[in-house]
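Input (structure):
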């Protein structure tokens, strides 16, 4: 763990000093060097993720695909979403707007006496165990993610945005970031707020996000893979998550045709098992939204069309 952290810091420092810092000075943005250094870290994380996706998950998709890729254009649009998020472009915009205001507000509350809380310190001896601390925060974040995901499927206004993610009928490792940008803004702010209030260190937050994203890339991959009877109940597999995307199953209550669904867990299937939303059927269905498949509802073919139609659905005009 120490070796990886040291190597990551060295790469971040080199890229910052060689490319980002000179560019910031050239653009007259020397007052933003601290932000630029943090952004360089997110950039390194994103580049590492893309390398793993292309070098590891990509070949697996070619070896054990669920279905042949028939719509290459849809996949290319998903690549755009991935690059926007993993190369830090979305993070940069959010920081200069909402996150900056949020952190300023929290800083003001801290100055007025709001105590600093670190959830991991409730565990005996955690100050000597970085791995234990990381696991605690990972489980807490995943629990929050489960309920947030259920909310996306519970409220019509939120489903109007989140349904874009489910409208991908050609799921691949690039599909994880296929979201409406407003949906991503809401999620990002909620998790930043959670991280601040439970005391997640910046480095831990980056690691939590990085590991979660890579796992989600694997879950969305066009892979006919499952983890076996026991493994399926320990970590979310491509089979488990694909059923969440299955037409009429993953986003509807059984036999009711109303919002709901199964397999909301992001990393851990434990919450689905605990709260009765787990479906462990061994099947690999077609993916999409029922009204898209049966009624021909248009969710958009290109990036901007998808974003525009999401807003129309939100306001009841699409």
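Output (sequence):
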């Amino acid at each position: 763990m120490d070796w990886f952290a040291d190597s990551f810091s060295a790469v971040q420092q080199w890229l910052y000093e060689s490319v980002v810092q000179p560019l910031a000075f050239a653009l007259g943005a020397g007052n933003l060097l601290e932000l630029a250094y943090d952004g360089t870290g997110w950039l390194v994380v994103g580049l590492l993720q893309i390398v793993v996706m292309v070098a590891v998950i990509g070949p697996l998709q070619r070896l054990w695909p669920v279905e042949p890729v028939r719509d290459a254009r849809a996949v290319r649009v998903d690549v755009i979403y991935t690059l926007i998020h993993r190369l830090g472009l979305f993070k940069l915009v959010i920081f200069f707007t909402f996150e900056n205001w949020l952190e300023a507000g929290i800083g003001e509350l801290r100055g007025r006496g709001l105590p600093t809380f670190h959830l991991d310190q409730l565990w005996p001896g955690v100050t000597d165990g970085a791995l234990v601390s990381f696991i605690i925060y990972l489980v807490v974040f995943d629990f929050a993610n489960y309920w947030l995901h259920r909310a996306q499927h519970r409220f019509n206004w939120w489903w109007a945005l989140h349904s874009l993610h489910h409208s991908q009928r050609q799921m691949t490792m690039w599909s994880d970031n296929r979201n409406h940008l407003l949906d991503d803004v809401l999620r990002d702010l909620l998790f930043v707020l959670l991280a601040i209030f439970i005391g997640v260190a910046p480095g831990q937050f980056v690691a939590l996000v990085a590991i979660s994203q890579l796992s989600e890339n694997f879950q969305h991959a066009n892979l006919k893979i499952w983890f076996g009877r026991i493994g399926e109940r320990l970590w979310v597999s491509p089979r488990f998550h694909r059923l969440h995307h299955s037409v009429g199953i993953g986003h509807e209550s059984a036999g009711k045709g109303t919002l709901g669904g199964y397999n909301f867990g992001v990393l851990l299937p434990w919450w689905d098992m605990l709260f009765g939303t787990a479906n462990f059927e061994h099947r690999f269905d077609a993916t999409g939204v029922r009204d898209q498949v049966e009624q021909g509802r248009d969710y958009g073919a290109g990036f901007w069309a998808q974003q525009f139609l999401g807003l129309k659905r939100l306001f009841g005009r699409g």
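Notes: The first helix runs from residue 2 to 26. DSSP finds 13 helices and no strands in the chain.
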